[in-house]
Amino acid sequence: MSDSYHVHETDSEESGAGDGETDAEGTGSAVDERIEDREDSSVTPSDDEDLTPSIQEVPDSRAVIRAEELSVHYGEEEALQPVTMGIPEREVTAIIGPSGCGKSTFLRCINRMNDMIDAARVEGSLRFRGKDVYDEDVDPVALRRRIGIVFQKPNPFPKSIRENVAYGLNIQGYDGDVDARVEEALRNAALWDEVKDQLDSSGLDLSGGQQQRLCIARAIAPDPEVVLMDEPASALDPVATAKVEDLIADLSEQYTVIIVTHNMQQAARISDKTAVFLTGGQLVEFGDTNRIFENPENQRVEDYITGKFG
Ligand SMILES: Nc1ncnc2c1ncn2[C@@H]1O[C@H](COP(=O)(O)OP(=O)(O)OP(=O)(O)O)[C@@H](O)[C@H]1O
User: Ranges for the ABC transporter domain (predicted)?
Assistant: First the structure.
């Protein structure tokens, strides 16, 4: 795999509304029952509890991304304590944890979106296919073509549906059949059938759920290897959320998907692996989603999942 990245668009970050509570239908599983036991949120974790991390190893042959002692400070504040973990290729990895625990900070390290925050200081290493993305010879804009991102609030450009999806291709000077790539991206984003007769209408005329799938089509049109999603469904209604969740499952056949979510049912439904960050920016547990939700090793993770705090 070449480490020379090509030039591509820079997405602007949106901080959107929504608190992550919007939810599609539950799965009715034992995992759901445990999560739905989140009635009592009055227990505050004690500092004495064991916080020895339990991090599942991902072999080099499976890891597309590897963080080694990766930490982030904003000024004097440590937002992310040193994280060491691998993220497996072509799986969905969910990142969960209470508000302010560093989920978005970690996600933004992966395609260097933290570069845009003056106060952010990143230490340690973050390797993408073996290459440290913070090496001096890495072009962050080109990196973001290989590691796309979808934000919480749908943010289509005030352009036609076709232009939205073709945007990244045009920026990178793609000289193939742009219309074919636009169709393929819209099909992969499960939006083609709904928009194929209105490709020249504004992307802003679509519903919120359609706009978010348009943003996903825009992110995958340049054919990235990794798609980062920062609470992609939290501003959507349950029907639109279910469509985006179905889409994420399909995307993982082709892409590595890393999704930050506040919604634990969603994490349990759609992810293969789950990383749990807790207050203070510590990665406390990482492993197979079923195991984390059914039998977490760490008491604080158990308490968080069953609603005793968070
Ligand atoms: N641009 C910034 N400048 C300064 N501090 C920041 C900035 N962004 C985040 N922080 C701080 O870093 C810590 C982690 O924030 P982050 O947004 O990564 O958490 P999060 O788990 O994604 O939270 P939420 O679930 O509420 O979105 C918080 O204490 C937050 O206040």
Answer: 65-305
